[in-house]
Amino acid sequence: MLDEKTIKIVQSTAPVLKEHSAEIGKRFYSLLFSKVPDLYNLFNQTNQKKGIQQEALAYAVYAAGEHITNLEKLTPVIRRITEKHRAIGVVADHYPVVGETLLEAVKDVLGEAATDEILEAWGKAYGYIADAFINIENELYEKTKNAPGGWEGFRSFTIDKKEKETNSVTSYYLKPTDGGTIASYEPGQYLTLWAEIPGEKYKHIRHYSLSDAPGKDYYRISVKKEKGHGEVPNGIVSNYLSSELNVGDKLEFSAPAGDFILDKSNAPLVLISGGIGVTPLMSMLNTLVENGTNRQVTFIHATANSEEHAFREHVKQLSTTHNNIKSFVAYDHPTEADRSAQNYNKEGFIDLEFLKKVVSAKDESEFYFCGSIPFMEAINRALNEWNVPKNHIHFEAFNPLAILGES
């Protein structure tokens, strides 16, 4: 345990780290990658270029410092981060250099304000926090390795089928190259890809939600080919998958991970997705159908129009053949054909007024949503304004700041 003096110093200085989180994070990664360049392989380099990862790191340290005497308060955040760490291969040996570099970054940014006493206190606090993460991650590694069909590290999978869902979304059916069994998963979880792309210096890490129900002899992920705009380049990995890979090609994945999972209750469900955020919710919906659930399900999807609407016919068919499933669609840029066919329920974005129209039994319902950060911020605001209980709100987030609950 930490001594009282250390706790007081950490809690009193935590707001300063928050105020300078972006600068500290930027300096930290600059120092870290100069010391251990191979760690580039463990981070999403697009998030690095955008500065998202840098800000998230110091903010996470600030939050842990603020709650240093009650880390249980951060359980949801810690669970998310440790799931990500297990998925990408973070191990105990990584923590010492990270701690050492973090203190260097704090000293560089804060200058004389970062006294030896403050740095010593934060060093102790970091060790305490790191131990908590390491213990949880070790349990996750053991659980994953020992699960039926489970494995350590990254395993080779062969693309068994490649199926176009829309002009920009493709589903990949993946079977283990070694012909062995594969681990089951909870609907809503993801696979983590470690991609070696020709011309790229380092490997690229990406998380892709599983988009079908578990229990098959394959995994399915559905990936949107990301087009660049302005200063934002094309998605490196999504374009590589779409344009360069075909049936028979091989990819490496770690075992399924993630804490965005379907609860086991019989409460009414509201599944809300934006764009490619539909993928984990498709896994949930397909699982419910295959299990013969009687749960009332309201499936709400927002996208540009029918040309960008993945799984449209599948969801429509399920809602037609199952009385307990209702489907609603919002298009923000419907085509003339969409307008003629009237194949959507709202033109524009999902808002609270629309939710109130299509969702019944609000107080009893469990709400799950996934999409872009702006989409999730809007849905979260609407649900909070509607006084939906916090413990009934669940979301998936691959963006580091959203992982911390900043969405």
TrEMBL record:
SUPFAM superfamilies: Ferredoxin reductase-like, C-terminal NADP-linked domain (SSF52343), Globin-like (SSF46458), Riboflavin synthase domain-like (SSF63380). The active site is at 95 (charge relay system), 137 (charge relay system). Keywords: Detoxification, FAD, Flavoprotein, Heme, Iron, Metal-binding, NAD, NADP, Oxidoreductase, Oxygen transport, Transport. It is an enzyme of class 1 (oxidoreductase). Heme b binds at residue 85. InterPro entries: Cbr1-like_FAD-bd_dom, FAD-bd_FR_type, Flavoprot_Pyr_Nucl_cyt_Rdtase, FNR_nucleotide-bd, Globin, Globin-like_sf, Globin/Proto, Hmp. NADP(+) binds at residues 275-280. In the C-terminal section; belongs to the flavoprotein pyridine nucleotide cytochrome reductase family. This is Flavohemoprotein. The gene is hmp.
